[in-house]
Amino acid sequence: MKRVIVNEKWCLGCHLCEYYCAFANSNKDSMVKALKDVVINPRIRVEEKDGISFAVNCRHCSEALCVKSCIAGALSKIDGVVRINKDKCVGCHTCVLVCPYGAIMPSEKGVMQKCELCLQNACGEPLCVKGCPNKAIELREVTP
Q: Same domain for 71 and 87?
């Protein structure tokens, strides 16, 4: 299974991955049109602690607590990727509370959102990986 892996030793804390993520999930063909004068709502976040920058994203856990705890059945695991059915999500935030990585967050529409490896996007690959200037974010094959 492929996963987005972040190497905090290489992360510059530039937040470009957040912008690429917001663009990838905007359904627009131009980054300028998608992000100009918009407060971005990315599915990956850069945080800093003790001078170390790192990106927080979904780990697609083998035993995903978010999937088990979703009262609406909106979360499921398909081909190793934890996905959200936005039509089923009721915005109860239970998944946010149980995620040990803090990788699930409310979208601007009130339903939850998280990294789904850009599988639902036209780009077909995680733009956070493609746009990272220091190659701190990789799409890598991992064993469960």
A: yes
Residue 19 sits in the same domain as residue 46: yes
Same domain for 51 and 63, yes or no, is no
Residues 109 and 70 in one domain: yes
The secondary structure of 109-135 as a DSSP string is: TSSEE---TTTTSTT-S-HHHHH-TT-
Q: Is the pLDDT of residue 124 over 80?
A: no
Cα separation, 27 vs 121, in Å, equals 7
In whole angstroms, give the CA distance from residue 47 to residue 128: 15
pLDDT, averaged across the chain: 92
Residue 121: the pLDDT is 77
3 shares a domain with 53: yes
Model confidence at 144: pLDDT above 80: no
